[in-house]
Amino acid sequence: MIVADENIDHSLIDAIRKLGIDVYSISESESGIRDEEVIELARNPPRIILTEDKDFSEWVFAHHVRGISVLFLRYHFKETDAIKTILMKLMSERIADLTGCFTTVTTQKIRIRRIDV
Q1: Adjacency order of strands within the sheet including 48-51
Q2: Which domains are seen in the chain, by residue range?
Q3: What's the rounded Cα separation, in Å, for the pair 54 and 65?
């Protein structure tokens, strides 16, 4: 299951849902909530936070927030179609590898880092 942060393009949410993956969209359900609330939504039940917000890397690596998984997208608007293709492949082939990790996805690479417990 995915928690799509408020900044996620709706076309990406639709594409993930077409894969049969449950997506809880912040923009559809709880627009304007704080990052801390997004983190709590992702903890119970466990979900992967899909975001374009760099602040989540700070939550994980500077503030040592644990018990979450983050999928951080870095791309330019003109690369939306390319990032969607990469994201769909990652979600369909390796979604289990993303649990307990901070994953950064660009059009050039995917970096998966385990979050130490």
Answers
A1: 23-25, 2-4, 48-51, 69-73, 101-105, 110-114
A2: 2-114 (3.40.50)
A3: 14
> pLDDT tens digits for 45-102?
999 999 999 999 999 988 888 899 999 999 999 999 999 999 999 999 999 999 999 9
Q: Which residues neighbour 82 within 8 Å (Cβ) at sequence distance 6 or greater? A: 75, 107
Tell me the average pLDDT of the chain: 94
Q: 3-state class of 42 per DSSP?
A: helix
Q: For residue 7, give both structure tokens.
A: 């900044």
Which residue blocks in the chain are alpha helix, DSSP H?
10-18, 26-29, 35-43, 55-61, 80-94
If we measure between CA atoms, which residue out of 88, 90, 4, 93 comes closest to residue 47?
Answer: 4
Q: Amino acid identity, residue 80?
A: T
Tell me how far CA of residue 97 lies from CA of 27, 52, 93, 108, in angstroms: 26, 20, 9, 19
Residue in 59, 62, 61 with CA at minimum distance from that of residue 43: 59
